[in-house]
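Sample entry (218 residues):
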Amino acid sequence: MKIKTFNNNTMRQNIYLCYDAPSTGGVLIDAGCGEADIQALTAFIQENNIAVKAILLTHGHFDHIVAAEELKRLFFVPLYCHVNEMEIVEDPAVNLSALRGTSIATAADGTLNDGDVFSLGGTTLRVIHTPGHTPGGVCYYDKADGNLFTGDTLFRQSVGRTDLPAGDYNQLINSIKDKLLPLPDGVNVYPGHGPSTTIGHERHHNPFIGINSGFLLY
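Predicted structure, serialized as tokens:
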């Protein structure tokens, strides 16, 4: 699987275009694009003849869905989120956009559950439900090539904040320890914000794993 990252937006939210070669089937992971991201993304997809099949959300906070409706229209694709995340993506008060004086909302065209598999052609992404940052937060795991897209669950040497509505610190840490840390050390971690890392690096250097203190990011 090939991965192209776009993050030219005010929240520095990483949007990942994942596509299979040679089938050229692809998906977008999250939709927090700014206008510059949309232009770059559209050009890249056209230049590489990528057939985008869907938008897969890691969770429904406004910074991850702000361009969801526009991307759905541009590429004529459905949007998926975890079944427990539907209220968040649909309600500006719950996805926190209302707190910023805006009204951002979208609707899922399909829902996902833990263990579901999405095929890009020769590559598959498996859904891992990792609640804590939000009730329906998920990660997407590409076992064949060792890639993990963690949204705001796990960052390089940090974890997602849990002081927002429906956040749960203990649940988040348990999600990471029980579902992500058992993965091989060499798995590449692509978070919702900030630089990439690996499971091995986080296992040895992330101060949040096993301790209830530190600095939370997004």
